[in-house]
Amino acid sequence: MSFGRPPSISTGFQATPPDRGSFPLDHYGECKASMIRYLECLKRNSSASSECRHLNRDYLNCRMQNGLMEKDEWKNLGLANLAVDDTSQGKT
């Protein structure tokens, strides 16, 4: 009898990767300003993300432009209904 180990480990636990792959950290702070603006907006609005979606789009766009996440269409990220100007589009 073994104590301190969950029984599932002995049955061959299999790790699965995340659905959208890895999400690398921003070690060089390339998108830190966008992230801070988004977090401050969430704080001001009691974590109501609907008020800060435009800042979320800007943050994700920064990550896509700097190779910190794979480029994807806004509709796949749940941000298709936001007006996007030509300078901040991730993928057309």
TrEMBL record:
A GO BP annotation: mitochondrial respiratory chain complex IV assembly
InterPro entries attached to this UniProt entry: CHCH, COX19, Cys_alpha_HP_mot_SF
Keyword Cytoplasm: yes
Segment forming the signal sequence: none
Keywords associated with the record: Cytoplasm, Disulfide bond
One Pfam family here: CHCH
UniProt superkingdom: Eukaryota
Region (Disordered): 1-21
Domain CHCH: 31-65
Cellular compartments per GO CC: mitochondrial intermembrane space
Subcellular location: Cytoplasm
Role, per record: Required for the assembly of mitochondrial cytochrome c oxidase.
Family designation: Belongs to the COX19 family.
Protein name stated in the entry: Cytochrome c oxidase assembly protein COX19
Species assigned in the record: Russula ochroleuca
